Amino acid sequence: MQTAQLHGLDIREALREARITPELIGQDATRVTPEQAARLVQALWDTTDDELLGIGPRPITRGTFRMITFGLIHSPDLRTALRRLIEFSRITTGFEAFEMVDDGRRVRLSFDPGGHTLTDQLVIDVIIAVVHRFAGWLIGRQIVLNSVDLPGSAPAHAAEYLLIYGIAPNFDAPVATVTFDRQYLNAPVVRSEDELTKFIRDSPSDLIFRQDYHPTAASRVRRMIEREHESVASVTVDDIAKRLSVSAQHLRRLLRDDGTSFREIKEEILRDEAISGLVRGTETVEEISDRLGFSEPSAFRRAFRRWTGSPPGSYRPESTAAEPD
């Protein structure tokens, strides 16, 4: 959003398309749904006609990613697909410093946009994540990374990289680099043109949705609680521990090792469901409060402010009538 504004773009229409209220922009605790994130990127694509939204060395016209990926889909294996990707990206995007090295044991993909500004770091985050996830999609397998090295010092949001790559990165590297076992290079490309067409039509959803890279105790607990739907609030640690065939004490210890707790996971799920309900705009605050198991709307409003730093009404689309917070 900051990049769009620096280019003099009016972001209000993009926010309306994504059903995001402007007052939430710039607040660290703000959260959006995957659908809102996808709509926002799509709206900015329409506004900028640039698939990198103005952060690359030159504009990348809409349709470039489609053209490149249709050049990859008929590759026999991932090795060939990655070689073609590097060649095509140099021709179409202006990024020259993109290379792949196979040392016989591991593969190293490196990328250097040339500078070391915050915008360059954003370019690195986008390019490396897209290449990693699209490569895994091509072969129908999750590519487990052995290491991630990023230039620059660790940012304030460094902990979020674990969700992006499935591994904590090292910082202050000369160039951005990811490594993985070379076994993946021999994996056949298993996707069809029809699947690619759908992937592009839904883009960028499959590239930005959260992915469970490793089945940690925390991710398993989250999935089990999410399956409860209407009774999330009443699920207890004893309920989940029983299903996992462990004691509640042992489960708490596993979650602590993952850097979280049963209560934190449960509150994150309630927060996300509350935001989704508010964005849909089909329920009142009172109805959402009751559905999520709160004793009264005032308790829900207090919890929501604690989770997001904002009142529930600030997550309502502009077309929704304001409600007291």
Describe what this molecule looks like in 3D.
The structure is a single chain. By secondary structure, the chain is α+β, with helices and mostly antiparallel strands. The chain has three domains: 2-48; 65-186; 217-315, Arc Repressor Mutant, subunit A. 48% of the residues lie in helices and 7% in strands. It has helices spanning 2-6, 12-18, 34-48, 64-70, 78-92, 118-139, 161-165, 193-202, 205-208, 217-226, 237-243, 248-257, 262-280, 285-291, 297-308, and strands at residues 98-102, 106-111, 145-149, 176-181. The protein has a four-stranded antiparallel sheet with strand order 1-2-4-3, covered by helices on one side. α10 packs across α13 (262-280) and α11 crosses α12 (248-257). It starts with a helix and ends in a 17-residue tail after the last helix.
Distance between the termini: 27 Å
Mean pLDDT: 85
Q: What series of H and E elements makes up the topology?
A: HHHHHEEHEHEHHHHHHHH
Main beta sheet: 4 strands, antiparallel
Percent of residues in helices comes to 40-55%
**Unreliable segments (pLDDT under 50, ≥5 consecutive)?**
none
Q: Give a count of the beta strands, DSSP E runs of length 2 or more.
A: 4
Which key features would you list for this structure?
alpha+beta; 325 residues; 4-stranded antiparallel beta sheet; Arc Repressor Mutant, subunit A; 48% helix; 3 domains; 15 helices
Furnish the topology, listing elements before pairings.
Layout: H1 2-6, H2 12-18, H3 34-48, H4 64-70, H5 78-92, E1 98-102, E2 106-111, H6 118-139, E3 145-149, H7 161-165, E4 176-181, H8 193-202, H9 205-208, H10 217-226, H11 237-243, H12 248-257, H13 262-280, H14 285-291, H15 297-308
Antiparallel strand pairs: 1-2, 2-4, 3-4
